[in-house]
């Protein structure tokens, strides 16, 4: 799977995903630090990347009737990077399965 990580999430998430055999890029590495969420969403959709974000704006974009982009929506508050990665690690098998089964929006709480 290919991922585009939103600005507010740590860059270490790129390495974490790469270690699991996925391609991942961080929005900051693409010069998108000041980009509007719609721009990030459009790039991800065009490149067939799953956006990873805590931002509800991406959920709104993903639920538009004509939209076909994918989102891993992290629905937990601010936390340390190690806690974020622990939560993802605990849920990763279910997350991967959901995307492989064709779900476009996967929510993690």
In the predicted model, the low-confidence regions spanning at least 5 consecutive residues are: none
**How much is the radius of gyration in Å?**
13 Å
Topology order in helix (H) and strand (E) letters:
EHEHEHEHE
Number of domains: 1
The strand count comes to: 5
Task: Please state how the strands of the largest beta sheet are arranged side by side.
Answer: 2-1-3-4-5
Helix content: 40-55%
How many strands, which pairing sense, and closed or not: the largest β-sheet? 5 strands, parallel
Give the CA-based shape: globular
C-alpha termini separation? 21 Å
Mean pLDDT, rounded to whole units? 96
Q: Strand portion, in percent? A: 15-25%
Number of helices: 4
Structural class: alpha/beta
Description:
The protein has 109 residues and is α/β, with parallel strands linked by helices. The chain has one domain (2-108). The protein has four helices and five strands; from the N terminus they run E-H-E-H-E-H-E-H-E. It has helices at residues 12-19, 37-46, 56-62, 81-100; strands at residues 2-5, 23-26, 50-53, 70-74, 105-108. It has a five-stranded parallel beta sheet, with helices on both faces. Strand 4 (70-74), helix 4 (81-100) and strand 5 form a beta-alpha-beta unit. It is globular, with a radius of gyration of 13 Å. 24% of the residues are buried. The mean pLDDT is 96.
